[in-house]
Each structure stands twice: as C-alpha cells, then as structure tokens.
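Internal ticket #5521
Category: modeling
Description: The requester needs a full-assembly model to guide mutagenesis choices. All entity lines are attached below as received. Residue total reported by intake: 855.
Assigned to: D.W.
Attached entities:
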Amino acid sequence: MRQRHITTENTEFVILCFEGPDRYSLAGGLGVRVDNLSATLAEMGFTTHLFFIGDPELSGEEVRQGGKLFLHRWCQWISRYYPNGVYEGENEKLYDFNKSIPWFVKEHIAKPAVAQGKLVVIIGEEWHTAEAMCRLSDALYSDGLRDNVVMFWNANNTFSFHRINWGRLNYTTTITTVSRYMKHVMWRMGLNPLVIPNGIPRSLLRNVQDRMADEVRRALGADLVLCKVARWDPDKRWNTAVEAIARLKEKGLNTVLLARGGMEPHGQEVLHHARSMGLTVAGARTNPGSSDGYLAALQKAASADIIDIQFHIPLDFLRVLYRAADGVLANSGHEPFGIVGLEAMAAGGIAFTGCTGEDYAIPFVNSFVLETSDPMEIVGYMMYLRDYPEEGKRIREAARRTARSFTWEAAVQNLITKLENQARIQGTLGGMPTPSTPQITPEDLMATTLKRHY
Amino acid sequence: MAQDLVIYAVVHQPRRIKLPAQPIPKGAAPKDIEHCLFDERLNEEYFHKVATYCYYPATEMFIELADGGLKLSIGFSVSVLRQAEAWDRKLFDLFRQLAAQPNIELINVEPYHSFLPLLDLRMFAKRMSWARDHLEKIMGNRPEVTDTTEMLMSNGIYHALDGLSFSGAFLDGRPWVMEWREPTHLYHKGKDMMLLARHYQLSDDVGYRFSNKGWWGYPLLADSYAHWLRETWGDFMVLAWDYETFGEHHSRETGIFDFMRCLPGELSKRNIATLTPSEAIAKYRERSFHLPLPAFPCTWAGDGGMEFFLGNAAQQAVFQLMLQAYNKALLTKNKKMIDLALWLIQSDNLHLIQWFDRWGSDAEVSAYFTPEEWWKLEPSGIIWEMQQVYKNFIQSLDAYL
C-alpha cells in the first residue's frame, strides 16, 4: 500500500549546493540557508545529505546530529588549489560537481534508499546545481528510480539565470523559489515556481537583552541610530541610506549609521558619496572577541556620522545592534527574500525593508516597507517613530511575533507539504493532504494591526 | 603466384580525452591535470565492451588457430595494455598467453599510438626503443619487427627505426608509394631494415568490406578468399588488420570468427603457408628490392595519405594545438607533463574527427569510432571542446615554466 505522508522513516533528503556550513563555503545567505535547512531536517529526524564545496582541509564526509546529517564536502581536490573560498575556481568546481554528483547520489543514496522502499527528496540550490539536477534526473530515470525521487530546484536569486537550460530544468525538476516577488520575476520567463520561503533558526527568537542594547546606545551617544548590513551593491541601495542620514542630520538630529558591508568596491563609492554630502566616516576595527571589545570599537568611532564596521560581527552581537537601532535598513531595490529584515524583526528590531521579496513584511504592522529609493521616505518614517514612540514598541512586538511563523521548522513544514503534493502527482504517495497547525494564527496578526495609530 | 602469407593484427584502444573539456585548476599537480584531461570512466566502459565482443573471443580464437599451426603476428599498443592491466587482469594474462605462443610473433608499435613520428623523430626513436624494452619486460618476447602508429612510414621514419636495429617494419602498400611495384615482395630502403608491404585491397576485403552487404564480394567465404590469395602474384602477401576487426568492427553475427576458423584449412588446400614476419624476412631478404620512400608519410588509414588525419580544418586546428602542447611540454622538462603531452598527441584524436565537414565511407568509419557520448555536444561542440582540452593543457603548463 502506498504511503500517505513524508515521514522520517520513509524519506531521505539530499541537498545540493555550492555554499555550505564551512567557513570556506559561506559566502552569503545561501550558505546560511542550506546550513539551517539541513540542520532543521536532521533535527526533525530526517536522514539528510548535504553536498557542498567544502573546506579542503576538513574531512570529505562528516556525520553530525546523531547520525542524521551527512556533510559531503565535494570538489576538495580542486579547492586545495583555491584557498580563498567557495567561488574561487568556480568553473573548475562546477564541471567536477556536474560530472560527479549525479552518479554518486544515484548509486550511493538513491539506489539503496529506494531499495528499502524509501522516498528520496533531492533539493538543488541556485544556478550552480541546475545542470547536476538535470543529469541526476536523467540518470535516475534511466535506472528506473525517478518515480521514487522528488526533485525540487530552488532559485534564491536571479544570478546567472542566463546559464540555465530552463526548458530542461523545468522538465526534470519542480522549480521553486523563495518569495512571490521571485515567482513573478520567473513568471515573465515562462516559469511558474512554487514559493517556499526561507526561514530563520528558532534560536533567533530568543530575547535580546535590553541592557546590552542600551549599552550600545550609550556608547554611540546619538539621537538616532540606524543600522545596515548588506553587500556593497547598488541593489542594496546604500546611497539611499547614506542620503537619509544626511537629511536627518540636516534636521538637527544627531544620527549615526552603523554600516557593515563586504569586500565589494562599491563600498568606496558609497563612502565617497557620504563624504561629499558632508558626512564623516570612521572605520571601526577590532579583533574577534567579547561584546566589550565590539562596544569599545564602536565607541571609538562614535563621533562619525557613518561607522564603517570592519570586523566580523557575531550573530549574537548583531542581534543586539538590530535591537538597539531605531531602524534596520534592509531597503534593497531587488531582494529575493530579505533575510536581514526578518532577522532584525526576530531580534525585536524595526525593519525598513524594500518591497520586493520580503513577503513577511506588512507595512506599519511589523515593519516599514519602502516603496521608493527616495531617502525622504526613510526620513519620514523615522520622524514618525520619533513622534510616536509607542508605535515603535508595538511594531517591535509585532515583528517578533511574525518572525515566529518564519522559523526553519515552519519553512520545512511548508516544504514538506509541497513535496508531498508533488509525490502524490508522481504517484509515489497516496491519499490527500491533511491540515497542519500554523505557528501563528491570523488573529495574532489582526490584534497587532488594530492597534495602529493611522 | 604468392605462396606465403604474413598475417598481422594490432591491438589498440585510445585513451579518450574528456569532453566537454574539464577546466584545470591553476597550478594543478600532474595527476590532477591528468584527471581533467582523460575520461577514464568512459575508457573503462569502452574497454569492457570491446573486451566482451572482441578481445576475449578473438584472443581465444587466435590462440586456437596458432595451436593448430597458423602463424601470425600481433602488435599491442601500451595504451591498450595499460587498460587491460588496470581494468581486466584476466584479459591481460590472456594477451600474454597469446604473445607467448610459438607461432605468434610479437610486433613493436608506437606505445601511445601517437603522432610522434610526425612531430619529433628523435623522440619517436627513443619511445620506440622504450616500447620494445617494455614489451619484452611484460610479454617476455623482444620484438624484432615493428609497426608505428596507423602504419605510418616515410623516409624519415624508416631511418629513425633502422637506427634501432629492427629487422623489419610494416608499411601500407599503396600505389602512390609502391608505384609500379607489387606489394607482394620484400623491400628495403638501402639499409638493413626490411619493409613488409601490406596488401591493402586483400586486407580491406576483410577489414572493411567483410560485412558490407552492398559489396560485390559479399558474403566473403574462406574458400573464395583463399582462392584470391592463391591467385595473387608475387612472393608473399601481408594481410594486416585492426585486431578489433574480429567481433567489434564486424560482430560475431557477421560470421567473421567462422571465416577465420575456416581460413587455415582453405589455405592448406591451396598450399599457402603462413609465416611470421621474421620468417618472411629471413626467407626473402636475399631477394629484397629497393623501395624509395616518400617524404610525406603514408598510412594504412583512409586513402593512404595524411589527408585522413589532416584533411579538414578541424583536424588541422587540433594538430596545431598538438604541436603547441607537445613542444611547450618539452620546455617544462617535466617528465610527467611530457608524458601527458605524448598521450594528447595520440592519433585517435584526429581520427575521431575525420568526419568533420566530410561524408562517405571514411567519414562513416571515423564517426563510428567517435564515442556515442560525445554526439550530444553536436559536431561543432565536439570540435570546440576537443580544442578546449588542448588549450587547457597548454595553459596549465605555465605553472611548470
């Protein structure tokens, strides 16, 4: 008799991605995503295999989480020639990945699992895995295994879309993406991906100590504190953020922007633009260490309008900054999902998101959603928060409540529901869908909405 | 009428390059470069396939025929021996058993089946000498007669081989080389080394045409073939084939094995004796004839000239890249990189793209040898990716200079 649901006993997961949990493999949000997704699946009891471009100095295979999570560090022989991270030697790695992964997954995971009567779920992340997914599907098909395998390929961004053979990918896999915005971007390409949002680790729902946030405020000594964490990329609208600081300063408000960018050259343009508007810029540097050290580094640069944070900010301290800030500028012009805004909300911060992929953001309920690149939009909302401090408090509470429904557990539940549906279409599972309990009720959201001051 | 017959078959499998081309990491170690250049998984698959259809049944057949008194000669490229040693030890031992038969003479061949005789005669001679020692070491017999690659022969090649004290060498008896001469005599080019001229029509009757239902001689039976041999004018005939003729080019179902098993009896009926190449040289040395050899190499492939390998723009481009790869590898003075370059100048890499921009039976033969897996790249993709393999290798040599 066919099984009705995906369970830990009848299903194994395989995730293919270039990025992964190793420091070598973490380049951005993608690594964090697959790290959390795989860990959550394993924590829920699913045997999960994560294939990624791993640190060449670590073991090729590592078993974690009580034997449930298998890390397969791929292409290590190539990575030894490219010590500067996952994307160095990208084409060399891609060739090897495409050539070797399909065979390995088919022979060593799919075949034994199917022989045990299990369903295999394979999730490919980003353009790098598109070709491997197609080849894997073909290989499974030729061995009569394809019906027992559900294959989802997920677009986290639009990077290198031109390198994907969409017709083939769409035929061999179920295409998914992380937001309705991405769905519409891809719709224009003749695709109709399923939307499976990202999530945040449940640990991010822990309370941030207000005492720590107060210490940050004291160290900075400013009337208004804004925070922005993003790559130095025009899409991230850094210049809008900087211009907003200048406008707030013109209004006589002592405002400081905590800016944490990356290694990208656009950063120099942004900081030059800031200086050209009369803003002062200071770098904050320190060695990895304690919160006191980070605080001291910020305090040292506090006289500047823009503090260019040049040290790695641990997540715990980052959450303190989100909480301490009057606004977290996640104001991208193009954002497939916008994890920073959600993380800020989980920390009880006030997120200023863009209005593309941030499906979690409800304007004036749990965040501010910026419709334009006009800095005055930011300025207007900042002035509103200053005039109505209780609104800020309410939004912070609503933000934390919203974040609860975007944990990885919730995201995985959503994923499994869609996988089950696909498995039913393939005839691998029988029965009909049954409801699952949402993590946040519509009433919760309505309660916060009604308290608005507008 | 020719009363003696020399039979020669050469066993060879190419070391196929990896298509699409695998990018080589910067500063890669030789073993990693090698991994990027050659598709060993594909090679192993093809090797097992050919072993099943050809090498096992053909070798068993030749051992049986030799036991029955048929004399013949076999050449092995190092390329095929390495594959057998790595992937089918039982077959490797069977090859050794074949080479040890008293009625079988082991023939030396260019070890990697490379175009070295076109590129660098000094190195060619060195490699032929190495191959001879190597074959003696693993097969137990020291070859006295030699083939080259695709039976390439020219004035220069002759002299390079003569310097190695081989008693004889093969060449294809094409009219443009032989001119008014019959291929059924023993020849020389003024030095000690004798030349055994392959009778290309009679050889190709079996090698190419045996299973061609459109050929006027189809079906070819052992008695009629023996009759044609008997009717041939001269001292002796040389028949030379790819070993893969038996079971691979012509499947078992065509009757090729039955044909060969019947042939010795039909030869006996007509008083045709089989000789090993060394025996033929010994018997006819005193009445050997001078043969002027061309500066342009001749070959047993295609129409007998280098146009089979260099006849289209794609082949010419790859040949240029072979020259660059080989000569740049020499600059590194790195033995392993030079060895990789020698593999890359394997003649098969031009053989496999003879079909480009061509049609007809030669192109069909060439396309037949092109790995099926490559065709999904489409013809222009195959050419592009093949060039890319060479370009990647040439680039990778930078780290060794």
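Resolution: model delivered.
Comment from assignee: Chain B has two domains: 4-290, 307-400.
Ticket closed.
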